[in-house]
Structure to design on (392 residues):
């Protein structure tokens, strides 16, 4: 029986590349694709894939929160997180969320097949940097990881994080309500609670918070009008 | 070999296209993410007559391969290590003015698009829409027409 994989990334061109890579492997099939975290969660529940591959930076619901929702629904889901950055914070959140694999997008052509194979053998797959961080945290009882944590803020609930992402993406309360099948009044209550918890007074504060906490990700263009090369993003 | 014209086989779907020419386009693909190159390649090579003749992972390699391989069209990312796509574009346009350059980038920005065209590119496509816009864009720039499509305004200008 074939290993069934669900693939979620908001860029069709990336999904095509990942599909080509995975379908080339004998005995594997991509049983479904999703363009955001919300669709990924729905399709995972419906299709029951053996492995779920989730991009972190997706609209509507990011890959980390989608992982949290899936693990809450059924801890037997096997999730590989794909990310453009292996910052301490993203690694920690991916591990906390319950991901069993962590692959950098830039290394996906090299690492993704190994990661799926590892999960197939009921093992985990992490980049060397994740292994270093976990080991350092183990040896130093978590201090190696916690040193790089941002200043602590009150914890948002899963629903509040979902709403934070949608608001930070520029959606109105009415649009959020429609997406989440809630009343506009309920969304506005959540919105007030979020702002109160975080002591924020504007949406701008919320956007900055969402970026800093990997709830949304932004593209950083190279500096324009420069003759020299720019660093990779 | 540039833009060699072939003819569709008699098994073409529509009689109207039976004798329509297929333009061979030799493409150099430049992006620092192998998985993105794979996705773009899959899309481009599904088009009859189009061939990805080389790949590069940064601007320096792009300049070198443009010089050696003489592609008809270069599909170029903006943000790359060693040398970004804008600088690579400027250098390539000086050396090979006949080579048409199409940017495929995640930057959905009018300012970036203007910069790309000023650097000498003929086309600009946003990566999130590449599956929709890429084929039309390659076809346009290969015929030396401008093709730009930003996501936010959903504007497509082909002239």
């Amino acid at each position: 029986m074939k290993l069934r994989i669900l693939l979620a990334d908001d860029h069709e061109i990336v999904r095509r590349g990942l599909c080509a890579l995975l379908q080339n492997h004998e005995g594997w099939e991509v049983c479904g694709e999703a363009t955001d975290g919300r669709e990924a969660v729905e399709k995972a529940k419906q299709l029951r894939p053996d492995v779920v591959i989730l991009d972190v930076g997706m609209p509507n619901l990011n890959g980390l929160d989608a992982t949290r929702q899936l693990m809450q629904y059924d801890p037997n889901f096997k999730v590989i997180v794909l990310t453009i950055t292996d910052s301490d914070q993203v690694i920690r959140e991916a591990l906390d969320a319950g991901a069993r694999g962590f692959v950098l997008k830039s290394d996906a052509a090299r690492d993704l097949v190994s990661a799926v194979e590892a999960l197939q053998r009921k093992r985990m797959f992490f980049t060397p940097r994740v292994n270093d961080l976990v080991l350092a945290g183990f040896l130093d009882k978590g201090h190696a990881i916690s040193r790089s944590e941002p200043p602590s803020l009150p914890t948002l609930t899963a629903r509040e994080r979902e709403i934070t992402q949608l608001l930070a993406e520029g959606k109105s309360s009415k649009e959020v309500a429609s997406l989440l099948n809630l009343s506009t009044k309920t969304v506005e209550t959540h919105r007030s609670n979020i702002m109160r918890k975080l002591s924020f007074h504007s949406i701008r504060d919320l956007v900055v918070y969402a970026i800093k906490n990997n709830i949304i990700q932004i593209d950083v263009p190279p500096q324009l009008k420069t003759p020299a090369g720019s660093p990779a993003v | 070999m540039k833009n060699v014209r072939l003819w569709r086989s008699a098994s073409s779907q529509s009689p109207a296209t039976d004798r329509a020419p297929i333009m061979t386009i030799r493409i150099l693909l430049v992006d620092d993410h192998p998985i993105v190159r794979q996705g773009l390649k899959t899309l481009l090579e599904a088009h009859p007559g189009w061939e990805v003749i080389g790949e590069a992972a940064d601007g320096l390699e792009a300049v070198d391969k443009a010089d050696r391989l003489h592609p008809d069209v270069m599909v170029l990312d903006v943000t790359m290590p060693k040398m970004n796509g804008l600088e690579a574009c400027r250098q390539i346009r000086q050396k090979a003015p006949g080579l048409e350059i199409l940017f495929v980038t995640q930057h959905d920005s009018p300012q970036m698009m203007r910069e790309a065209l000023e650097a000498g590119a003929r086309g600009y496509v946003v990566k999130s829409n590449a599956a929709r816009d890429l084929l039309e864009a390659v076809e346009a720039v290969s015929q030396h027409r401008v093709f730009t499509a930003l996501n936010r305004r959903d504007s497509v200008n082909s002239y």
